[in-house]
Amino acid sequence: MQDIDINKVTEPYEYYLKFIKENCRPDNRRLSDIRPCNVTTNCINTVNGSSLVKLGSTNVTCGINARLCRPKEDRPNKGYVVCNVEVPALCSSKNFKSSTQSSSFCQSSVSSSSIEQTQAMLSQLMQDIITESKCINEEELCIKEGKLAWVLFIDLICLNNDGNVQDACCVAMISALKNLKLYQIDFNEEEDRPVVKYPLEYRDFALHSEPVLTTLFAIEDNILLTDPNKQEEDFMKTFVLVCSVDSQKVCLVRKLGGFCLKIEQLNMCINRALDNGKFIRENIIKK
C-alpha cells in the first residue's frame, strides 16, 4: 500500500508549503509551469466557430454564433461582440454558494464567489480582453453602415472546474475566433434588405492579435505561482491577471485581493505572462 501523508488531509496548507519551499508543487510542476493544455477546434457543428480546451483537469468549451443585426445608433459603422461565461455548480466537486448566501464579492478568490458573481466576473473579463487587445476590428463586422452588421455571441461553458477557469476561457475563445467563418452577404439598398447568396460562401475571420491570459497567485509575501489548480486557489492570498498580445506587449494587468506587490514581483508576473503567451500561441492555439 502507498504511504499517505496525514498532513495532506489534516493540514493541507502546511503540507503544500513543504513543496513550495523546495521550488516545486505537489503535482510535480515548477512554480512557473502551467498544466498540460490541449485544444480541439470545430467540435460543435451548429455554430460558426467552436473549440474545446483542456487545461489540466479544467475543461471549457466555446461556441460562437454569428447573427445579423442593425448596428447601434451611436456606432453605425460597427458590429459588436457579446461574451457570456457559464460555470455550472455541477462542474466542481466543491459547491458554490448561491447569491442569497453571499452578501459580498470577495475578489481574492474566484472560488469564494457565488455562481452568479463568478459568471458575471468572467463574462466581463472576456469582454475586456476582446476590447483591450483590439483583436477584433468591429468595423469589419459591419455590412452596410447604419443598416446591417454582424453580432458575435461568444458563449463559454465550463465543463469541469479544477481551477484557473479564466485562462482556459481565454484560450477557448481565441481558438474559436481563429476558426470562425462568416458567410458572404450583400445588402439590397432598393429593397432595404439583406441578400444571402446560395450556395453559402464562407470566408475566414481575421484576428488582429491573439491575446493570452496568464493567472499568477501569491500565497506568501514573495512566492508567486502560475496557473493555480482548484486546491491552490483555496490557498491563495492574492492573484494577478496579465493578458499578453505578443511576445513583447501586454494589454491588461489586474491585481485582485491580498497584499501589495513589489515592482520586481509585478515585473516577474509580466515576464512570465509574456513567456507563457508565446508558448501558448506557438504550440497550443491552432488554426
Automatic annotation (TrEMBL):
Its main location: cytoplasm. Keywords: Cytoplasm, Exosome, Nucleus, RNA-binding, rRNA processing. It is found in: Cytoplasm; Nucleus, Nucleolus. Residues 34-181, 217-275 form the Exoribonuclease phosphorolytic domain. GO terms for cellular component: cytoplasmic exosome (RNase complex); nuclear exosome (RNase complex); nucleolus. Gene3D superfamilies: GHMP Kinase, N-terminal domain. This is Ribosomal RNA-processing protein 43.
